[in-house]
Write a structure and sequence with these properties.
Length: 385
């Protein structure tokens, strides 16, 4: 049930004709609970889509009544006309729901540059149709409606004593961090104050979505939204809630990694004994974005030299000649030199684990990425057509 698992939320997904397949492409999530707390994090890309520009303004007062999302077009770099489309979408939803347009967030995903008159008409029509079909059972079809190149919809639910968190996500490409890394809507019936919701969301995304770096390409449309309505009447311990929210976000992040475009390996990069957590992240991300390493994993080649070459480009503290590297449990490099024979490493399973021991401090961090495949190149070369 994803976003409708917590009490007091309704959702719907409909086919408005934005996708040539005729599948659902407009979704609406509405908070029917007693409280209307909202928080969101956005892409840090300076090139932002019109829905991002709108939603950043709308969420500033931390009051959110509803979120309207569409796939089939990013409405990015479509000029003032595109911003008016986003504005009109919020106004249409607000009119039908009896709320203020400034309390409606808008999200779009798809090809950059798509957002003409036909797009506008279909989004507005789809918004009206989705609101007419809102229900407490609509979470799953809403999750389907936000898919683009995703092969499966992605949902998660975490329940605790008396309260629940539900979420849906889309993303299969352009997965790189910038506070958020895809379109995600998360709902909860826990009682949260606005600043608590914001802090919990930033904590959770900072250690989950923000460490998913599938292809190093940051989107213009990334947004993660948290809606809290207090329908359970339970006030959770903030640490407990933050931990549960991080658990849900991690589950969604792993599902996004597993559905990355064309990938044949899901790579977990664990950096150990770094001087600081930030340096551990920097080292892990340097490997996650190294195309030579990613190509080697695609070829089932435990080329640890490419790991050392990648981390050597960072500013992190370590001695390149005192680094250990493990691949799927086999230490292939010890103190910057060869260790076990490469033939001992089995890289045929999809799940791939890379461990890097910097031997400097006590900080650790884990980055999720994928390999670089022929299918990834083909899918992204043909996407516009």
């Amino acid at each position: 049930m994803s976003v409708t698992a917590p009490a007091g939320f309704e959702a719907a997904g409909v086919a408005a004709g934005l996708k040539s397949t005729g599948k659902p492409d407009v979704a609406v999530v509405v908070n029917r609970g007693p409280r209307k707390v909202g928080a969101a994090v956005f892409t840090s890309n300076r090139a932002k889509a019109n829905p991002i520009i709108w939603s950043q303004q709308a969420v500033a007062d931390r009051v959110v009544e509803a979120v309207v999302l569409n796939s089939g077009g990013a409405n990015c770099f479509t000029g003032s006309f595109g911003f008016q489309t986003t504005h009109q979408t919020a106004e249409k939803a607000a009119e039908l729901l009896g709320v203020g347009a400034g309390d409606v967030l808008v999200c779009s995903t798809g090809l950059i540059g798509v957002g003409d008159e036909v797009f506008r008409a279909k989004v507005l029509s789809g918004t009206e149709q989705a609101i007419a079909e809102l229900s407490t059972d609509g979470g799953d079809v809403a999750a389907e409606a936000i898919m683009t190149t995703d092969s499966v919809s992605k949902t998660a639910v975490v329940s605790r004593d008396g309260w629940t968190i539900g979420g849906m996500a889309k993303g299969a490409g352009m997965l790189a961090p910038g506070l958020a890394t895809m379109l995600v809507v998360i709902t909860t019936d826990a009682v949260l104050e606005p600043l608590e919701a914001d802090a919990a969301l930033r904590f959770a995304t900072g250690t989950t979505f923000d460490r998913l770096d599938s292809d190093g390409c940051m989107s213009t449309n990334d947004q993660v939204t948290l809606l809290a309505n207090g329908a359970s009447e339970v006030v959770p311990d903030l640490k407990d809630f933050s931990a549960a929210l991080a658990e849900l976000c991690q589950e969604l992040a792993v599902k996004l990694q597993g559905d990355a475009e064309g990938a044949s390996h899901d790579i977990t990069i664990e950096v150990q004994h770094a001087a600081t957590e930030a340096e551990a992240v920097e080292v892990g991300r340097s490997v996650a974005r190294n195309n030579l390493f990613k190509a080697a994993i695609f070829g089932n080649d435990p080329n640890w030299g490419r790991v050392l070459a990648a981390i050597g480009t960072t500013n992190a503290q370590f001695d390149p000649y005192d680094v250990d590297v493990w691949m799927n449990g086999v230490r292939v490099c010890s103190e910057g030199g060869p260790d076990r024979p490469r033939e001992e490493v089995d890289l045929t399973p999809r799940a791939t684990h890379l461990a890097i021991d910097l031997k400097v401090g006590d900080a650790t961090a884990t980055i999720l990425t994928n390999d670089l495949t022929h299918d990834y190149v083909h899918e992204n070369s043909a996407y516009a057509s």
